[in-house]
Amino acid sequence: MSTLTIAILSFVIVAGATLLAGITLMRLWPALQRERFGGQGAAPAGATSILRWSDDPRSGWESTIEKIGRAVGGSEESAPTKYRRRLIWAGYYEPRAVVLFVGAKVALGGGLGGFYFLYSLVALQVVPFPRLLAVSLILGVIGFFLPDFWLRNRIKVRRREIVHALPDVLDLLMVCVEAGLGFDAAVARVAEQPSKRQSPLHKELLRMHLEVRAGRPRQETLRGLAERTGVEELKSIVGAFIQTEKLGTPLGKTLRVHADAARVQRRHRAEEQAHMAPLKMLVPTVFFLMPAFFLVTLAPSLLGLMKLLKALGQ
After folding, report:
1. What is the pLDDT of residues 56-92, one digit of tens each?
2. Which of 125, 158, 191 is the last residue of a domain?
3. Which of 3, 132, 136, 228 could form a disulfide with 117 if both were Cys (CB 3.0 to 4.6 A apart)?
4. What span, in angstroms and rounded, lies between the C-alpha atoms of 119 and 206?
5. What pLDDT sits at residue 127?
6. Which CATH number fits the domain that encloses residue 234?
7. pLDDT tens across 143-199, in order?
8. How many CB atoms lie within 10 A of CB 57?
């Protein structure tokens, strides 16, 4: 076989493997989906409004978990209200999200406990039954409360993102209002920015704008915005907007005052975190760096002392 033939075959094999890997990544890896390579302003084909959702499960696992949740927690109407409120704070508005969450709690609890129980009975037959039962119950409780920890962290991260984006959004609203736009048009202008569509606050503003266009009163949409986020700063700003609309005072001045206050609060939060950084670094320094430091500095002296003591003993 000639050198040219080997080079051509090598090129074809490498090109085919690269193409196959690229197609696999485009289909399976969410961070490299095909829509990410399109224009920022282009919406995917067949995209629907964020006020609508589909009742069909997206996968077999989701269908199974939904069946478990309906068997345990009932329908969407009879599901616990506290879970519904917390899921809305986390950004999940679908009615069946509560059923999926309850089903995930039951599935994780029963799955962890049952898996360890069966594995111990089959593989580790020497484990005493009381210990086996206790460990299975502990793992079941841990699995049952894992979704609660995940949901709490999700709410905390989402609220932090909303609070961090609030000063910039208020500045943009102030600029739009002082430029002559109405409040609804300013909200639509800020919410429909292509580069900010993934921000939780911009999504909430877009939802509020669509609700106003659908015919819901503005005060109800503002209160709904505050309730969906659960952020105290946003609640106070929404109260000021409603009061401004009732009294007829200029909205631009209200936006300017709250934008300045939000920027000051963001700077104070950054300064507080900067002051807390040395205290947070103290624990890893003491437990990880100090032992290594003492080992490096004292090990030669200790080795020399041990040799001296051994020589004296002989």
Report:
1. 656 677 777 777 777 776 666 656 677 888 888 888 8
2. 158
3. 136
4. 50
5. 67
6. 1.20.81
7. 889 889 999 999 999 988 888 888 888 888 888 888 888 888 888 888 877 666 678
8. 15
In a domain, 80, yes or no: yes
Q: What does the pLDDT read at residue 46?
A: 43
* Rg value, the chain, Cα: 29
The angle subtended at Cα 100 by Cα 98 and Cα 102, nearest 5°, is: 70
pTM: 0.69
Under a CB-based contact definition with an 8 Å cutoff, are residues 54 and 62 in contact? no
Residue 216: C-alpha distances to residues 126, 144, 190, 210, 224 (Å): 66, 39, 20, 9, 11
Structure tokens at 215: 């015919």
